[in-house]
Amino acid sequence: DRILQFKKKKMHLINVSQNLEFLEDTFMHKGIANPASAVKTDYGVAWVNENGAYLYDGQKVTDLLEKRGRQIIKESTWASFLGAAPVIGYLPSKRQLIILKSAGSEAASADIYLFDMVTQSWTTGDSKFTDSAKQTNFVVDANNNLVIAQQATPFQVADIAYWDDNADVSGTGT
C-alpha cells in the first residue's frame, strides 16, 4: 500500500492505501542516480547511493551502514567505493545484497560489497566480475541465480555472468 518514488536526491513515500493517495514522507539524501541502484527483496526494497545503503521494510527506512546506532562502514570508505552508477542485486536463496561498484563504465573495477541480511554483516570482494567491463543491472533467473550481462570491449557480444560466492584462491604454492 506504499509507493517508493525515487528522485536523484530524495525518495518520496506515497501512501496509496485509501481512495486518495497522499505523500506520507520525504527522505532527503536517499535518492538514486539510476534504476539499477534499487532492488526488491524478501525484506522490502533496498537501494544504494553515495550516502549509504538503505532498506524500506514497509514500516521504516533503515540505514544498512549502521548497526545499533554505530557506523559499520565509514562514509569516506563508502563514498570512495561507489562510482557514479552503482548496481544492487538480491540473491534470494542466501538473502544477500550484492552492490557492484559503478557498472556501465569501461574504467570501473568490478569490486563489490556484499550484505548478508540474515547476519546483518558486510564483506567486500575484489574484482568479482570482469574489471573494465560495462555491466547491466542484476536479474534473478528462473533457477534463482543472480546474473548480470557484461561487455568487456565495444562491439563484443555481452557475456552473461553468474554470481559466484565461492572463495577465490590466489598466490603461489611452495
Give your account of this protein's structure.
The chain is mostly beta strands and 174 residues long. The chain is built from one helix and 17 strands. The chain has a four-stranded antiparallel β-sheet. A four-stranded antiparallel β-sheet has the order 10-11-12-13, with no helix packed on it. Strand 6 (52-56) and strand 7 form a beta hairpin. The protein is globular, with a radius of gyration of 17 Å. Residues 169-174 have low confidence and may be disordered.
SSE string, helices as H and strands as E: EEEEEEEEEHEEEEEEEE
Helix/strand/pairing class, anyone? mainly beta
- Say how many strands there are: 17
List segments where confidence is low: pLDDT < 50 over at least 5 consecutive residues: 169-174
How helical, in percent, are the residues?
under 10%
What is the count of DSSP helices, taking H or I runs of 4+ residues?
1
- Which strand-content bin applies to the residues? 35-45%
Main pleated sheet: 4 strands, antiparallel
Rg to the nearest angstrom? 17 Å
Sheet with the most strands: spatial strand order: 4-5-6-7
Give the termini separation: 61 Å
- What is the average of the pLDDT values? 83
Shape: globular
